[in-house]
Amino acid sequence: MTEKKCVSRGALWVFALAGTFAMAASAALAAGNRPVVKLVAAAAAPVSSAAAKSDGAKTWDFDHDRGYLMPQDWTAVSGNWKVLIDLDAPSEPNTLGLPGYGLPRTKQVMLWIDSFFSTHYLLAISNNTTEYSDFSYEAAFRPWGGAWGSYAGLVFRYAGPQNYYVLAAACPKNYLALYRMSGGQLNLIKEVPATLERGRWYTFKIDARGGHFTAYLDGKQMFEAHDGTIAKGRIGVWSQNDSRVSFDNLKLTPAAAGGSPPSA
Questions:
Q1: Is 261 a member of any domain?
Q2: CA dist 62 to 7, 92, 191, Å?
Q3: 66-104-236-157 Cα dihedral, nearest 10 degrees
Q4: What is the pairing mode between strands 202-209 and 135-145?
Q5: In this structure, is residue 100 part of a structural domain?
Q6: Are 19 and 183 in contact (CB under 8 A)?
Q7: Domain limits for position 93
Q8: Is residue 248 a contact partner of residue 88, using CB atoms and an 8 Å limit?
Q9: What is the pLDDT of residues 174-216, one digit of tens each?
Q10: Between β-strands 50-52 and 82-86, what pairing exists: parallel, antiparallel or unpaired?
Q11: What DSSP letter does each residue of 84-138 carry, written as one string?
């Protein structure tokens, strides 16, 4: 969840400048946040990361996408989203993530400093233009770094960068929450405690049926919530500021006509 930083701008700049020197002087700090993630050489020809099933379900494991590039059937709305290798991934080797350490050092520092003054939401959206209303949407995620924590989110009913829902997991702030982005403002719908550790893989899932939502973490139902503001839209993934997070095995299963989304 976005937090207000109640410190004077001048004091923050002094603190940020000191942090800049510390970061530049010690590469070990960055290394401490790195998972087993590597760049992968470009394949001869990219293949779609999506797979369709007979029940209409679509999955994305990114294992046929080129390394350190955006998957060909996804679009980065905001953020430096790339295909990364993680040998611990549920379907190794490829994941979709935010490789903060892969950015030039000066850009890393500027992202870190900027996070003191504002919040930037980072979005990647599937190129599948189908707008879904009732469905089950799930993924594996790994939070592994970020100055203000690591955030992983499932975007659904996406109608544009200023209007969508997101199921968000925050580490080490330890919560799972449902938000509605409306007119560029992030509004909390429901939040519950959830213990999360950096470097571990987890799964989360949202079942949507009309204005009723059910959220799961590692197969356990965490909460139910209601909101009927956005009726349908596309799907994607989400994070914020300088978070470092990876996603794998995304799966979207539309609800059967007249039925309910699959249970956990």
A1: no
A2: 41, 9, 30
A3: -150
A4: antiparallel
A5: yes
A6: no
A7: 9-254
A8: no
A9: 999 999 999 999 999 999 999 999 999 999 999 999 999 999 9
A10: unpaired
A11: EEETTSTT-SEEEE--GGGS-HHHHHHHHHHTTT---EEEEEES--PPBSSEEEE
Asked if residues 98 and 141 have their Cβ atoms less than 8 Å apart, the reply is no
Helix H or strand E segment including 185? strand 185-193
The answer to whether residue 235 sits within a structural domain is yes
264 is a domain residue: no
The single-letter code of the amino acid at 196 is L
Beta bridge partners of 103: none
> Using 50, 70 and 90 to split pLDDT, how confident is the model at 64?
very high
121-126: strand order across its sheet = 74-78, 121-126, 234-240, 150-160, 163-171, 175-182, 185-193
Of the candidates 35, 59, 88, which has an alpha carbon nearest to the alpha carbon of residue 249? 59
pLDDT per position as a tens digit, 116-149: 677 899 999 999 999 999 999 999 999 998 887 8
Per the model's pLDDT, the better-predicted residue between 104 and 17 turns out to be 104
**Amino acid, res. 124:** A
Q: Please tell me the total count of domains within the chain.
A: 1
**Per-residue model confidence (pLDDT) at position 54:** 66
Question: Residue 75: which CATH number?
Answer: 2.60.120.560
